[in-house]
Amino acid sequence: MRFRPTPDDVLAGMNDISAHLSRIESEGYTLIENAIEPALVDELNDALLELEHALNIVPGANTFEGHHTIRVYNLLAQHAVFQKVPVHPALLPIVESVLDEGCLVSSVSSVSIDPGETAQPLHADDTLYNLTRPHDAVVCNSMWALTDFTEENGATRIVPGSHRFPDKPEYGKHYDSIAAEMPKGSLLIWNGSLWHGGGANDSGSRRVGIAMNYCAGFLRQQENQQLGIPLEKVATFSDRLLQLAGFGTYKALIGHIDKQSPTRVLLDREDNFLNVWDLVGKES
Q1: How distant, in Å, are the alpha carbons of 41, 85, 272, 274, 278 from that of 281?
Q2: Which 3 state secondary structure label does DSSP give 127?
Q3: 112 DSSP β-pair partners
Q4: Hey, what long-range contacts does 262-266 have (CB within 8 A, 24 or more apart)?
Q5: 278: helix, coil or strand?
Q6: Which of 23, 84, 133, 178 is deepest in the core (most CB within 10 A)?
């Protein structure tokens, strides 16, 4: 089966956040066609090819990462253009509503599926947190379509409604799923409990995407943003991206350094941070 978006599926576009949230709540995912500016898509594609060659990236050696799939990890440390991804206005407001404004960048990586790749085992992105299912969303992830996503070239496969299942999928077992086909420049956004996986590429061309993943602010991130990104690069981040990358605090407490914000301690950037206990004291 394949998923071909209808006007009802695409809803009212990127501005109708409530409609997208309703779809994520009921089906576990939503899709926004043509959400990413064409010029940004081109920049991202060019940067990924440059990195693939400069870093001599080769396919993985396991069934999860794929034997014919190129993945570049830790993209915020690799090229300035990727700073535009976590804060994109078509995506971040939806993620903030699924989680909260204290959410974090969990990982930013590319997934380029080459011809001949087999389907990735279906999985849920929040599996390793080992929470009893179903549960409130603690992970909200997205796939950026930097090429057309079709069933033939490996479009992400999803099991609608599976974010409500009491179990996680058995690794490597076949389950009925649908292909989330979408044109270049679109976004697929899902609850991290949704069963999904990359599709098989039976076409003659590469399928390129960026996996932009977020987690709740009280969880440990997949990629260690604080240690994995050189501070000289972090210093170029916008204030919002700094918070998303974990250089702030969650609920004015979690992540502080000696009752100061990491941005002040590590980057000497002025802010108005007050520890939660100072805030409580001021209110009493």
Answers
A1: 48, 38, 16, 11, 5
A2: helix
A3: 70, 208
A4: 262/226, 263/239, 266/231, 266/234
A5: helix
A6: 23
Same domain assignment for residues 233 and 215: no
Q: Which residue is it, tokens 């943003």?
A: 225
- Residue by residue, DSSP assigns 160-186 as TTGGG-SSPPPTT-----EEE-B-TT-
Per-residue pLDDT at 280 = 78
Task: Write the pLDDT tens digit of every residue in 159-192.
Answer: 999 999 999 999 999 999 999 999 999 999 999 9
Rg (CA), the chain: 19
Provide the 3-class DSSP secondary structure of residue 259. Answer: coil
Which residues form the domain of 265? 229-283
Q: Mean pLDDT in the chain?
A: 93
277/237 same-domain check: yes
pTM: 0.93
Mark the ranges of the chain whose per-residue pLDDT is less than 50: 1-14, 284
- Domain total in the chain: 2
